[in-house]
């Protein structure tokens, strides 16, 4: 059971109030990109056993999208943060460094 | 198992469950921090205060419910919806906003009785304890399998809205959860 803090309405939202939105911080490969880059944008996803960054939507609550950082193996939630950013806040990364020394996720570590 | 109940007549158990007469409902979206929008919403709803995050300003049939950082649901008598929309349109002219009559989208129910919280607690993952959901607050969540919103509307009484297309289902859920013999006594401890 996953319980995430919604940064918009502030409630602790049960997983069943939420809709998953897949991997966080994807960057769209534009018209100038190569076929390989565009394919990676469309299909290549992280599927780690450990630290992961995801998008979630408080679908049955306030309806807003937000980000969450959690451990896929233990279900520990490191934190949630608003949708209007392209990378996780530094304070959250620091928390994860303390809790999971040596972790890496795409180019974050 | 769901019990067979008559939505028009209501249901009596350890709490009473009833469907309320159609209420006027207006969705208002915009910048909720703007004084102009706050004043317009209060005038349209006919209430004297503006809710903060998760807040519900309830005065009888009238209410402003906080739905999200940029969305409110205004409740008023059904006959006043046209007038309220007109007021909003005039007050917010030139301001980026959306006001729409959604009165027909949702049905509205009341659960009343000492253990009204318990009826909701059986159906939603939301924390409905008196500390988490006191008078003056509203919670959007789900009841069993469908979206719903609920708020305290007086001593031992909650009002609940759910989409009209699933109103039968919601009524049966509430009636079943309120059946005599189903008391848990959690909030009475
Ligand atoms: Zn939310």
UniProtKB/TrEMBL annotation, chain A:
<dbReference type="InterPro" id="IPR006279">
    <property type="entry name" value="SoxD"/>
</dbReference>
<dbReference type="GO" id="GO:0046653">
    <property type="term" value="P:tetrahydrofolate metabolic process"/>
</dbReference>
<dbReference type="GO" id="GO:0008115">
    <property type="term" value="F:sarcosine oxidase activity"/>
</dbReference>
<dbReference type="InterPro" id="IPR038561">
    <property type="entry name" value="SoxD_sf"/>
</dbReference>
<dbReference type="Pfam" id="PF04267">
    <property type="entry name" value="SoxD"/>
</dbReference>
<protein>
    <submittedName>
        <fullName>Sarcosine oxidase subunit delta</fullName>
    </submittedName>
</protein>
UniProtKB/TrEMBL annotation, chain B:
<protein>
    <submittedName>
        <fullName>Sarcosine oxidase subunit gamma</fullName>
    </submittedName>
</protein>
<dbReference type="InterPro" id="IPR027266">
    <property type="entry name" value="TrmE/GcvT-like"/>
</dbReference>
<dbReference type="Pfam" id="PF04268">
    <property type="entry name" value="SoxG"/>
</dbReference>
<dbReference type="InterPro" id="IPR007375">
    <property type="entry name" value="SoxG"/>
</dbReference>
């Amino acid at each position: 059971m996953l319980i995430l803090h919604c940064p918009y309405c502030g409630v602790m939202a049960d997983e069943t109030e939420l809709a998953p939105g897949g991997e966080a911080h994807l960057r769209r490969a534009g018209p100038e990109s190569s076929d390989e880059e565009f394919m990676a944008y469309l299909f290549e996803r992280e599927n780690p056993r450990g630290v992961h960054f995801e998008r979630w939507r408080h679908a049955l609550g306030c309806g807003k999208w937000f980000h969450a950082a959690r451990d896929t193996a233990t279900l520990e939630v490191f934190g949630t943060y608003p949708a209007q950013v392209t990378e996780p806040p530094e304070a959250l990364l620091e928390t994860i460094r303390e809790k999971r020394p040596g972790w890496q996720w795409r180019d974050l570590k | 198992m769901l019990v067979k109940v008559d939505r028009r007549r209501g249901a009596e158990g350890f709490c009473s469950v009833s469907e309320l007469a159609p209420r006027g409902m207006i969705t208002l979206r915009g910048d909720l921090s703007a004084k102009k929008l706050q004043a317009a919403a209060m005038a349209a709803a006919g209430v004297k205060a503006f809710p903060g995050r998760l807040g519900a300003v309830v005065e009888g049939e009238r209410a402003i419910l906080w739905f999200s950082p940029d969305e409110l649901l205004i409740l008023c008598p059904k006959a006043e919806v046209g007038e309220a929309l007109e007021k909003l349109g005039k007050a917010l002219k030139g301001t980026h906003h959306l006001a729409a009559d959604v009165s027909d989208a949702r049905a509205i129910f009341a659960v009343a009785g000492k253990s009204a919280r318990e009826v909701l607690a059986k159906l939603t993952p939301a924390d409905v304890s008196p500390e988490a959901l006191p008078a003056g607050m509203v919670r959007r969540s789900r009841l069993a399998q469908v979206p719903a919103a609920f708020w305290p509307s007086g001593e031992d009484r909650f009002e609940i809205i759910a989409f009209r297309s699933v109103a039968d289902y919601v009524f049966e859920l509430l009636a079943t959860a309120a059946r005599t013999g189903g008391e848990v006594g959690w909030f009475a401890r």
